[in-house]
Specification:
about 5% strand; 5 strands; globular; 3-stranded antiparallel β-sheet; 17 helices; single chain; Glycosyltransferase; two-stranded antiparallel ribbon; mainly alpha
Length: about 475
């Protein structure tokens, strides 16, 4: 099977998809919404986050201002591990392809800042890093609008006694990457982000350990760390090196990169492939090019070292839920690496008949995945809500599936939303730009609210897609429909 860009991929309006993909983050906002809020069916929520702690659980026995941030998916919990990754990827998207975003760059910056501001709050008490707000068990037992939720808003933190290197280092990476973005616009703010990033990285490295151990009951199985924390430490150091050019971080990378376990994973849990692609663009560590090449060869269907699967309609698949998170993250990395290969005039050698993979081939692959998601697939369905004529209507998302406060002002309690969850009617609020988990490996999609593996949107599916869409917005000869 050979993926190529064919006539079927023509006609996508990447600019429209980019606008919607960024708009999605406004619908995921927690806290006091700004006057500029464009998703007006969402209202203020969780405006007292940080007030409620529980001894023996939070490891931080005081109130902290934790208002803000993002709900990661279709629930009302703030999971800081995937939120930080999403912020990192939004920042990388602007760093790499911001010049292609046009007027949407302003909204992308707002999305990054909304995440970064919350992460600054989560790291405001020295010696502690808040990693989660909300009890996931009680939250997942309810179907409530975020504006109504009356479930526990307990917050959970790691410390030197109960470390959490993976989430702390990911927050450091997000803040460092964000500091690079804002250096061009707000120098003082950029410097503040960078100072905090360095402090949080030092904490993550000095007190090594996984938050699975101290907070496992509360973070697992929701966002349990399955790949270990070594990759986040190198990832954080890589972004700090990019932000500072300080030789300390380069030395740290050289001394710790051998701890990476794989080269073919990238997402909120494992950063390995992203590290190798990022380090290649920074021209440091000779093993990075080799491992980045291995990553490319593990994905391309014509490669003899292929390690992923493909649907009949040519969507890539890896094990685990919410498959589109892999398609969007990998597509983004392919575009970043193609840009690097073009600059150094190099090809990738996968062996056999795939001995000279050009940067153009990497771009073709990324576009095939992007176009599949936007509707060039057997069902002719867009997996971005609100894009195209046919898209998911019954997504697994509380705020989208329940009537907005504008439509129904009365309080909806924990079980009061059950009838809406069970309904076969389309969601009353169209969650523009949301990418769902996607079809199954046979290219089938049930469009069922209860099928959360396929119908739930997440910030970490959308974040890398922002960068990919920005690239194709300005590097495509396709004309909109």
């Amino acid at each position: 099977m050979l993926l190529t860009v064919t006539e079927r991929s023509r006609g996508h309006d990447y600019g429209d998809a980019l606008s919607k993909s960024i708009l999605f983050f406004e619908a995921q906002r927690s806290g006091k919404l700004p006057p500029t809020q464009r998703v007006t069916w969402r209202k203020d929520s969780a405006v007292h986050d940080g007030d409620q702690f529980q001894e023996g659980v939070s490891h931080l026995y005081r109130k902290v201002d934790l208002v803000g941030g993002y709900y990661d998916a279709g629930d009302n919990v703030k999971f800081n591990f995937p939120m930080a990754f999403s912020t990192s990827m939004l920042a990388w998207s602007v760093i790499q392809f911001g010049s292609s975003m046009g007027a949407e760059r302003k909204h992308a910056l707002e999305a990054i800042r909304w995440g970064a501001e919350y992460l600054m709050k989560a790291t405001s008490v020295p010696g502690y890093v808040v990693v989660q707000v909300g009890d996931p068990y009680s939250d997942h037992n309810c179907w409530q609008r975020p504006e109504d939720m009356d479930t526990s808003r307990t917050f959970y933190a790691v410390s030197k006694e109960y470390p959490g290197s993976e989430v702390s280092a990911e927050i450091a990476a997000a803040l460092a990457a964000s500091s690079i973005v804002f250096k061009r616009y707000q120098l003082a703010y950029s410097a503040r982000l960078l100072r905090r990033a360095r402090m949080v990285f030092e904490f993550a490295d000095k007190y090594r350990g996984s938050y699975n151990d101290g907070l496992g009951h509360w973070v697992c199985p929701f966002y349990c760390d399955y790949s270990g924390y070594q990759d986040e430490l190198v990832w954080g150091a890589a972004w700090l090196f990019k932000a500072t050019k300080n030789s300390y971080y380069r030395k740290y990378i050289d001394e710790n990169i051998h701890n990476l376990k794989t080269f073919a994973e990238f997402g909120w849990d494992s950063k390995d492939a992203g590290i190798n692609v990022l380090l290649s663009t920074l021209m440091i560590n000779n093993s990075s090019n080799s491992n980045a090449d291995k990553f490319i060869c593990s994905v391309l269907p014509e490669s003899p070292s292929l390690s992923v699967s493909y649907s009949p309609g040519e969507l890539m698949f890896k094990q685990g839920g919410s498959n589109l998170q892999h398609a969007t993250a990998f597509s983004f990395l392919f575009l970043v690496y193609a840009d690097y290969l073009n600059k150094v005039n190099r090809h990738v050698d996968c062996g056999g008949k795939a001995s000279a993979i050009s940067p153009t081939r990497l771009i073709q692959f990324a576009r095939s995945q992007v176009d599949y998601i936007l509707g060039s697939n057997p069902l002719k369905m867009s997996y971005m809500v609100g894009y195209g004529e046919k898209y998911p209507k019954r997504i697994h998302h509380r705020a989208s599936s329940l009537p907005s406060i504008d439509m129904q002002r009365g309080h909806i309690d924990c079980k009061g939303g059950s009838s809406y969850f069970q309904s076969q009617n389309p969601n009353p609020n169209v969650l523009l730009g949301a990418l769902v988990g996607g079809p199954d490996i046979n290219d089938q999609y049930a469009d069922s609210r209860s099928d959360f593996v396929h119908s739930e949107p997440t910030t970490y599916i959308n974040a890398p897609f922002v960068g990919a869409l920005a690239y194709f917005k300005s590097h495509s000869s396709s004309k909109p429909n």
